From TrEMBL:
The chain crosses the membrane at residues 12-35. It comes from the Eukaryota. GO terms for biological process: carbohydrate metabolic process. This is L-Fucosyltransferase. GO terms for molecular function: galactoside 2-alpha-L-fucosyltransferase activity. InterPro entries: Alpha-1-2_FucT, Glyco_trans_11. Keywords: Glycosyltransferase, Membrane, Transferase, Transmembrane, Transmembrane helix. It comes from Caenorhabditis elegans. GO terms for cellular component: membrane. PANTHER family: GALACTOSIDE 2-ALPHA-L-FUCOSYLTRANSFERASE-RELATED, UNCHARACTERIZED GLYCOSOL TRANSFERASE-RELATED.
Amino acid sequence: MIRYNTNNLMSLCVAVGILANIYIVTRLTIGFKILEDFPQIQEFPSRCVIDEDYFLSFVESRRVTELKEKVFLKNNNDKTVQLKLFAFQSAGLGNKLFEIISLLGIANSLQRRPVIDATIPSNIRSLHKSIQPLFPKLVEQFDLKMIPASSVSSHQMNWVKCCIFDDPKKMLNRSEQHLMLNGHYFQSFKYFHHLRSEIREWLAPSKMAKLAAETVLTSELKEDLIICTHIRRGDFQTDGVHQPSDPNFTRAATDFLVKHYQKWHYRTTVVVFGNDVNFSKAVFEDRVSNSSVIPNRTTPPLNFPIPENSPKYSVILPQNSTPENDLAFSRQAPSSTFGWWLSYLAKRSAVVYYRDIRETKDKVINDMNPNDFYPPEWIKLGTRPNGDIFKF
Ligand SMILES: *[C@@H]1O[C@H](CO)[C@@H](O)[C@H](O)[C@H]1NC(C)=O
Ligand SMILES: *[C@@H]1O[C@H](CO)[C@@H](O)[C@H](O)[C@H]1NC(C)=O
Ligand SMILES: *[C@@H]1O[C@H](CO)[C@@H](O)[C@H](O)[C@H]1NC(C)=O
Ligand SMILES: *[C@@H]1O[C@H](CO)[C@@H](O)[C@H](O)[C@H]1NC(C)=O
Ligand SMILES: *[C@@H]1O[C@H](CO)[C@@H](O)[C@H](O)[C@H]1NC(C)=O
């Protein structure tokens, strides 16, 4: 990381500009345009900080093919749009995906170029460390630039609340060249649903993840109807906002779906994904076919009686699973963004069920318009007072 103090800001920024420009020139021929505004501007970015190591390795591994002019721009305008990328500072993968994909969706709606500010260290670090390795195509869909803050027109949008749709169309008549939409999370499918097939392509799994996903199911199970249950525990147990998956609901909802689908399909197999295999094992203790490799019940024990009238099925708990493998294979913590993406990217024929967030104590409900967060084709499940599950 290189930081420049303010005394030397001007001269060092010029130096960075020149270095970067040399770098750019070599890249320009292959369609990579960074810092293109640099020579023309009189004034240098106020934050003259670039995380050089990440930046260079990130740029190096961006695919250096001629970038086919993106689906994005019908006319050749050079108007840009940026989001604050608030979640890039510390949030998890699901949150980051929402912001970056909402940026692409909004840019498309406004017919502007999607831009990510290369001077913010958390931007480059996240792109390089958590997004590029999983989704190399995704990081080619936007421009990386340094645009001086004084030429960017900033507007509040999707302010504070995570999961609402704040229609970007109200920015359509803006004439400023550079827009910054200054908001948080942008967690609504309505920002990008019109690009769904492109999104599936941008988030296509790597070959490795695909192979790992193939091994989850042995060949004799491949014809089964597969129900994927996603659980989310970990930090959701303690962060004071989210509710972790609940053992009673997880089991009851899985049993409900198995019964429902066993009417048509003889064999059903359940694959449980998530970030707590001990919890999954405890909830499906009597259904896990290969438990020898899995640790024992959670401590402290879950307050959870195994139900008596459970249909017959077998459960697979993928070992050493990683988020990208889980994604490649494609929910129940009501506000898990990762579960959301698992569902959104699942094969087209998949049917998605989710728990009615209103029946949990999940505080995200206060920041959410469920109609903006859950696509209408997803099916909501609720719990009756006696514990039975029903479809809305
Ligand atoms: C854009 O249109 C809205 C009303 O539709 C208006 O209030 C606003 O002033 C316009 N903005 C610009 C920059 O023209
Ligand atoms: C699961 O249990 C094992 C041993 O019982 C423990 O080492 C591990 O940390 C537990 N994992 C989680 C996610 O709690
Ligand atoms: C169960 O797990 C062990 C250890 O990984 C493996 O050797 C064995 O083949 C597995 N059995 C089944 C039925 O999958
Ligand atoms: C789980 O518990 C059983 C019996 O209590 C014990 O034999 C086994 O070694 C334990 N497995 C692990 C992975 O700790
Ligand atoms: C699960 O259900 C049982 C019986 O209905 C109840 O006693 C227990 O408190 C529930 N557990 C949780 C974690 O809500």
